[in-house]
Design brief:
The structure is a single chain. The relative contact order is 0.08. 31% of the residues lie in helices and 14% in strands. The C terminus is likely disordered. It has seven helices and seven strands, in the order αβββββββαααααα. α4 crosses α5 and α4 crosses α6. The strands form two sheets. Strands 1-4-5-6 form a four-stranded antiparallel β-sheet, with no helix packed on it. The chain has a three-stranded mixed β-sheet with strand order 2-3-7, with no helix packed on it. The chain is α+β, with helices and mostly antiparallel strands. A hairpin with a 3-residue loop joins β4 and β5.
Length: 215
């Protein structure tokens, strides 16, 4: 400890001076001091917002709305009213785009043909969120149900990821692959944590399971 130290020829120690000054100090603020820079961009028709010279995705439901963005040195946070709706690592290069695949799932489940070549999928792979296990399950589902329905089944599984930790979803896909279960709901039971911590059911989108035939 440095409390017993004296600065130069001063008559009191560091601890003694602090004891005199402590009652004069103001209390800390109740809320943390915000160090980010505020922006209020409007979400464009692609579900993206401009921040400085780059663009970032937000949930597609926010198209046309104005949101609040707090830009920090290494990341940014997006708020709708006072609710956090997106968080991204800050882009350094100019003219770059950062997309979160989860933000587009409601659109992609209705238009699965846009999924394979999407930039959001490419970035999810690069970030490690879309794993080789996802690809293996997707390949098997497409062989069984066809390109469109197999892809739609995978997107339903990704919607499940909103309610479970990522590692549990991957574990569910692994179990489904071993069992040969290639429907949208097949990874649900293996992916669920113990009954002591129940999870909400996966979000339905009005689509039927891939193994049920249309009439």
């Amino acid at each position: 400890m440095d409390d017993a130290r004296r600065i130069g020829s001063r008559p009191k120690t560091v601890a003694e001076y602090f004891a005199l000054e402590q009652p004069l100090l103001m209390p800390l603020p109740e809320e943390p001091f915000e160090t980010g820079r505020l922006f209020t961009p409007r979400v464009d028709r692609y579900g993206q917002i401009p921040v400085r010279t780059n663009r970032y995705s937000v949930p597609i439901r926010l198209i046309g709305k104005r949101v609040r963005v707090m830009l920090h040195a290494s990341h940014l946070v997006v708020y709708d009213q006072n609710v956090e709706v997106a968080r991204h690592e800050r882009l350094i290069a100019k003219g770059a785009v950062r997309l979160d695949l989860d933000h587009y799932l409601e659109v992609l489940v209705r238009k699965p043909g846009a999924f394979p070549g999407s930039t959001a999928l490419e970035q999810a792979r690069s970030a490690g969120r879309f794993t080789p296990v996802h690809d293996a399950w997707w390949d098997r589902a497409r062989k069984i149900h066809g390109e469109r329905d197999g892809t739609r089944a995978l997107i339903e599984v990704l919607l499940l990821g909103r309610h479970l930790p990522h590692k549990h979803v991957v574990a569910g896909l692994v179990a489904a692959l071993r069992a040969g279960a290639m429907t949208a709901w097949s990874p649900w039971r293996p992916a669920r944590p113990s009954r002591r911590t129940p999870s909400p059911p996966p979000q339905r989108t009005g689509w039927f399971p891939a193994n049920r035939r249309r009439r």
